[in-house]
């Protein structure tokens, strides 16, 4: 893929984002505020998933391994 096609694809994705989220009808300051809030929420969701999902997976692994009678060295 050449650079021109990648650039066109990303501009098409951005256009789709604007149409779906109705950002095309907002004023520039409203659009920047909306994008900032959306980016902040997305960053918090990613951070929360990064921090808490491994903990829950480990706890579920320990719970089910104790139920099945399998004891591993990582649960100590």
TrEMBL record:
One of its GO terms (cellular component) is serine palmitoyltransferase complex. It is found in: Endoplasmic reticulum membrane. It is a multi-pass membrane protein. It holds the Pfam family SPT_ssu-like. Its main location: endoplasmic reticulum. GO terms for molecular function: serine C-palmitoyltransferase activity. The chain crosses the membrane at residues 35-57. Coiled coil: none annotated. It comes from the Eukaryota. Pathway: Lipid metabolism; sphingolipid metabolism; Sphingolipid metabolism. Keywords: Endoplasmic reticulum, Lipid metabolism, Membrane, Sphingolipid metabolism, Transmembrane, Transmembrane helix. GO terms for biological process: ceramide biosynthetic process; endoplasmic reticulum organization. Component of the serine palmitoyltransferase multisubunit enzyme (SPT) that catalyzes the initial and rate-limiting step in sphingolipid biosynthesis by condensing L-serine and activated acyl-CoA (most commonly palmitoyl-CoA) to form long-chain bases. The SPT complex is composed of SPTLC1, SPTLC2 or SPTLC3 and SPTSSA or SPTSSB. Within this complex, the heterodimer consisting of SPTLC1 and SPTLC2/SPTLC3 forms the catalytic core. Within the SPT complex, SPTSSB stimulates the catalytic activity and plays a role in substrate specificity. Component of the serine palmitoyltransferase (SPT) complex, which is composed of SPTLC1, SPTLC2 or SPTLC3 and SPTSSA or SPTSSB. The heterodimer consisting of SPTLC1 and SPTLC2/SPTLC3 forms the catalytic core of the enzyme, while SPTSSA or SPTSSB subunits determine substrate specificity. SPT also interacts with ORMDL proteins, especially ORMDL3, which negatively regulate SPT activity in the presence of ceramides. Belongs to the SPTSS family. SPTSSB subfamily. This is Serine palmitoyltransferase small subunit B.
């Amino acid at each position: 893929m050449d650079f021109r096609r990648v650039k066109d694809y990303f501009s098409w994705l951005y256009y789709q984002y604007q149409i779906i989220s109705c950002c095309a009808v907002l004023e520039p300051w409203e659009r920047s505020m909306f994008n900032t809030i959306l980016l902040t929420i997305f960053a918090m969701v990613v951070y929360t998933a990064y921090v808490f999902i491994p903990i829950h997976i480990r706890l579920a692994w320990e719970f089910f391994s104790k139920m099945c009678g399998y004891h591993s060295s990582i649960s100590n």
